[in-house]
Amino acid sequence: MALTILILNGPNLNLLGTRQPEIYGSQTLDDVLLAVAEHAAELSGGPDESGPEKIEIVDFQSNIEGELVDRLHEARASVDGVVFNAGAFTHYSIALRDAIEAVEIPVIETHLSNVHAREEFRHTSVLAPVCVGVVAGFGVDSYVVALDALVRHLHR
Q1: Intra-chain end-to-end CA distance of the chain, in Å
Q2: Which of 18, 83, 89, 109 could bridge across to 134 with cysteines, CB 3.0–4.6 Å?
Q3: Are 85 and 110 within 8 A, CB to CB?
């Protein structure tokens, strides 16, 4: 069995590595995606993908809410689950919330920083109620932990 996982990133995540490194760290989005791909290969049994199942990672980033909605709609026909860092859209995008609910594929909300240790407005997620779970505060490892949790969820 092969799994396809979408790593979906929202606004300003293309600026990782240069945007507020004291909060988000010095790693770039490419570094994040590489860490996820390497972990997916480990879960698949190593670089030769000889393990019990292959995990394919696809990714998409946009600063535009509608493009993220469109990508979620497309994901319905092509992926098994989504690790989603919606950035600031997490706190107010009903359109993304509705898209997550509509596509009926498991989504894990993910954040590099601990949003609950930051400004009050970041403490509320409109996405969390329609996601399988939330992973936040571990930097790049948030994505790795989210991938682990998503794969385990898909095997249930």
Answers
A1: 14
A2: 109
A3: yes
Taking the C-alpha atoms of residue 55 and residue 59, their distance in angstroms, rounded to an integer, is: 13
Among residues 24, 116, 123, 153, which one is catalytic? 24
Active site residue 91: no
Residue type, 100: I
What tokens appear for 93 in the block?
Answer: 């995008």
Question: For residue range 35-64, what is the model confidence (pLDDT) as tens digits?
Answer: 999 999 999 875 554 455 899 999 999 999
Query: Cα-Cα-Cα-Cα dihedral of 19, 24, 25, 29, to 10°?
Result: -70
Q: Give the predicted TM-score (pTM) of the model.
A: 0.90
Q: What are phi and psi of 99, to 5 degrees?
A: -65, -45
Of the residues 111, 123, 143, 155, only one is catalytic, namely 111
Class of the CATH domain delimited by 2-155: alpha beta
- 107-111/133-136 β-pairing: parallel
Q: Check if the beta carbon of residue 111 is closer than 8 Å to that of residue 135.
A: yes
